[in-house]
Amino acid sequence: MRNKNTLPVLGLLSAFLLILVVNTACKKDQNSVDKDVTDYSNPKHWLALPTDPAKAVDIFYLYPTAWTPDSLTNPLYCEIDNSTMLQGSAYALSMQATAFETSGNIYAPYYRQANAVKTLVLPEDQRWDILKQVPAKDAVAAFDYYINHYNNGRPFILAGHSQGANVLLFLLSEYMLSHPEVYSRMIAAYVIGYPVTADFMAANKHLKFAEGPDDTGVIVSYNTQSPKVAPGTNFVVGNNIGLLINPISWKRDETLAPASESLGSLWFGVNNSFVKKLNFADARIDLSQGILICSSVNDSAMYKISGGMGLGVYHGFDIPFYYYNLRQNAENRASKFLGK
């Protein structure tokens, strides 16, 4: 259920980010979190853990940044039981992971997150180093525990957004390379809200990017914004040019997919509910920026809902805008994989 006073989870973070970003860059990090990985044999360390998985496919989901630091003195990483992360991750699960629930049994670990207020201001290599130390180690440990204790040989879909998507890249580049027998069961990896660059793919030749709606063992990725956003000003993307696929047409060219062709967006209803919203979000790839352009929504209205990342940056809505297309596509890829 959605708390009526809760903005989309990335909005909470990003509003705080813009207030503190300049001052934070000069602060010295103080991290007291033990870097040993979280114990995933403890059910309390799972956001979603099916007791009786009935579907033939699993979903392994990593939520976006859900920890909202409350001051500049917060550590570089949060504790696994941080209350704001627990609340924010549950909200993200309801708005994002449910898109995949018709395709498989959802497994979602809690993982200790990096302080995005501190990491987003850093150069890309430093940001990756911070994420590799704790968040990625937790996520890889959780996935390995899931494979060895819960998966029982089923094919699976990976899904993650924002920080969760960034962490998935570590899982794809390192764990899948070392465990080809596990990778052979991967239906697709929905790495949304963080750029998957050509350099990353070139460095990880065991991976492949999606070319259409039906291929399996592939990465699906995109980042959404208004056509008015100036190149290089999107905090998440920066100057990185990501590979991407249109989540309505499932093509990789720059042809516009109008909102009338969308299967629907997930939007806010009454009494803390969500509803399907038709004819809302269109999608067009901008290859020069590596960005998915959405021009059919009112950027000023969206800014009032969750505008911390800046006018026209739709980061918090990467999944809700194309929710029902993602659902149908995950079902389709799972069906293709199971039919082989």
Q: What features would you describe in this structure?
A:
This protein has 340 residues and is an alpha/beta fold. It has one domain (9-338). Helix content is 32%, strand content 14%. The strands form 4 sheets. The protein has a 6-stranded mixed sheet, sandwiched between helices. A 3-stranded mixed sheet has the order 8-13-12, with no helix packed on it. Helix 5 (135-149) crosses helix 6 (163-178).
Q: What attributes characterize this protein structure?
A:
single chain; 340 residues; alpha/beta; 10 helices; 32% helix; disordered N terminus
Distance from first to last alpha carbon: 37 Å
Structural class: alpha/beta
Name the helicity range: 25-40%
Residue-averaged pLDDT: 89
What is the topology, as strand order, of the major beta sheet? 1-3-2-4-5-7
Instruction: Note the total helix count.
Output: 10
Shape: globular
Major sheet size, sense and barrel closure:
6 strands, mixed
- Give the low-pLDDT segments: 1-34
The ordered H/E elements are: HEEHEHHHEHHEEHEEEEEEEHH
The number of domains is: 1
